[in-house]
Amino acid sequence: MSLRAMLALPLVLALAGCGARPGSRVERGVETMKTEKAPDKLLERGKAFAQVGDFTRAEQYLATALDAGADPAVVLPLLLRVCTEGQRYRVAIDYAEQHLRKHPGDQRLRFLVATMYLAIGETAGARERLEVVVAASPKDAAARFALASVLRDMGEPVLADRHFRVYLELEPKGTHVEEARASLLKEVR
Q: How far apart are CA 173 and CA 161, in angstroms?
């Protein structure tokens, strides 16, 4: 290598961004990578992919945002929505169950998980979760009706009858009154 080439090499490397000095291109690149892994950026990308119907990529970004520390109250509903819209009910159940292990008092989420179990035909899983919801929230009319319906469909009319009756007491003019009355063992006026 000529003397001229050896003297020019540091200049070429510096111009190409290979010299890692404070404020250099490398440091800016590292900062950009950190920014792109920020929970809010991941969340925004997940939302964007969901809007265009790319549910798989949306799920990846939203799950990563959750892992990166994004607020579960914001991310989890979106994550469950993209999973269900993509007909990935088991995956949605897994995300929800992980959250429920940390927050066992979230009965709304547990009710949603029960409905997802029904969507995949696992009535035993739905029944188990609905029983927990009803035990924790005995005045939840929707949970009572759902549990009664599951019990009826599982061939347990006596247990179903009890929950249909409580539903009728809680919601005497509710949207499911006719079905609940039709499912009773003995008609009630």
A: 18
Structure tokens of 45? 């990308």
Residue 133 has phi, psi (to 5 degrees) of: -60, -45
Tokens representing 135 are: 């035990």
CB 122 within 8 A of CB 154: no
**d(C-alpha 153, C-alpha 23), whole Å:** 67
Tokens for 12?
């070429």
Q: What is the pLDDT of residues 102-146, one digit of tens each?
A: 999 999 999 999 999 999 999 999 999 999 999 999 999 999 999
Residue 111 lies in a domain: no
Question: Where would I find the beta strands (DSSP E) of 79-124?
Answer: none
Three-state DSSP class for residue 175: coil
End-to-end Cα spacing for the chain: 103
Q: What is the DSSP letter of 71?
A: -
Question: pLDDT by residue (tens digit) across 42-51?
Answer: 999 999 999 9
**18 φ, ψ (degrees, to nearest 5):** -85, -20
70 within a domain of the structure (yes/no): yes
- Domain span at residue 47 reads 37-88
Find, among 89, 109, 91, the residue nearest to 99 by Cα. 109
Is there a contact between 145 and 170 (Cβ–Cβ < 8 Å)?
A: no
In a domain, 49, yes or no: yes
